[in-house]
Specification:
Elements (H helix, E strand, L loop, with lengths): L1 H23 L5 H24 L2 H7 L3 H21 L1 H20 L6 H9 L4 H27 L8 H32 L1 H25 L2 H4 L2 H28 L4 H11 L4 H11 L2 H30 L3
Helix pairs in contact: 1-9, 1-14, 2-8, 2-9, 3-7, 4-5, 4-7, 4-12, 5-11, 5-14, 6-7, 6-12, 6-14, 7-8, 7-12, 8-13, 9-13, 9-14, 11-12, 11-14, 13-14
Amino acid sequence: MRHLRALFDHFTLALLAVIAVATWLPASGVGAAFFSGLTHLAIALLFFLHGARLSREAVIAGAGHWRLHLLVFACTFVLFPVLGLLLKPLILPLVGDALYLGVLYLCALPATVQSAIAFTSLARGNVPAAICSAAASSLLGIVLTPLLVMLLMGVDGAGGSQLDALLAIVLQLLVPFVAGQLARRWIGAWVTRNGGWLKSVDQGSILLVVYTAFSDAVLSGLWQSVSPSRLLGLTLVCCGLLALVLCLTRGLGRWLGLSVEDRITLLFAASKKSMATGVPMAQLLFAGSTLGVLILPLMLFHQIQLMVCAVLAQRYARRE
C-alpha cells in the first residue's frame, strides 16, 4: 500500500509540475511542432508496451466470467454517460459549458487497466477477471469512445470526419497494441522483468501529452477562461460522480448476488476512467485550443479515483 501511494503521489506532483511549466513556458512555433511529433511517438510506444505486458493466459483465465464483464462494460459505457447527461442541471452551473464537455468526455472513456488490476489484487478480488475486463474495456473504448463522443458532444474529430478520427485512433493506439501482443513472444519476459522503469515510460508519455495539450491551451487563454471557482466546482463534480458510481456498482454487485471477489472486481474495474487512453485519444478527437480544458476533468478525476480506491482496497484487504 505504501508503495502504491508513493507512486501516485509522485505522478500527481509530476502532473502539477508539467502544468506549471506549460503555464510559464508553453511550447510554440518550432518547439510545438517538435513536441507534437514526439508525443505521437510516445503514445505509440505507450500502447505497444500495454500490448506486450498483457498475458494471453491471464485473459483466457478471466474470460469465462462473462456476466461480470458485461456489468463492467455497462457501467463504463452506459452508466457513466447516462449520469453525465442526467446530472447536467447540477454540473453545468458549477463548471460552465467548456468544462462540462470535458466531464462528458470523461464519462465516455474506457476503464483503466493497470490501476484496476493493482487495486483488485491488493483487495484480494478476482484478478484474472479484472485483467480481462480492464483490457477488453480499453480495446472496446477505441471504437466506442469516439462514437459516444459524437453522440454526447456532437464532435466528429479534430478537423475531419468521424471515420477519419476512428482511423487515426486505430493507427495510433490499436496497431501498436496489437504489435506489442505479437512481440510478447520475444520480449514478454524482458517487459515483466523491467516493469518498474517501464512504468516511468508510460507516465512520461502521458506527461508529454499533457504538456503539449496545456501549452496549446495556455496560449489560447486557458487560465483566463477557467477561474478558481470553476476549478473548485469541478473538484466537487468529480468527487460526487465517483462517489455515486462507487455506491451504484457496490449495490449492484450485492443485488445480483456476486461473490465478494467479483464484487471487488466490479467496484474497481467499473468505477475508473483511463488517463492513459483518454489523453492520447483526446489529442486525436479535439482541436488543439480546446484540448487543455477538455482533459482537465479527466486529470482531476484520475487523481481522485486513485486516492479513494487506495483507501477502499486497503479496507477490503483487511477482511478475513
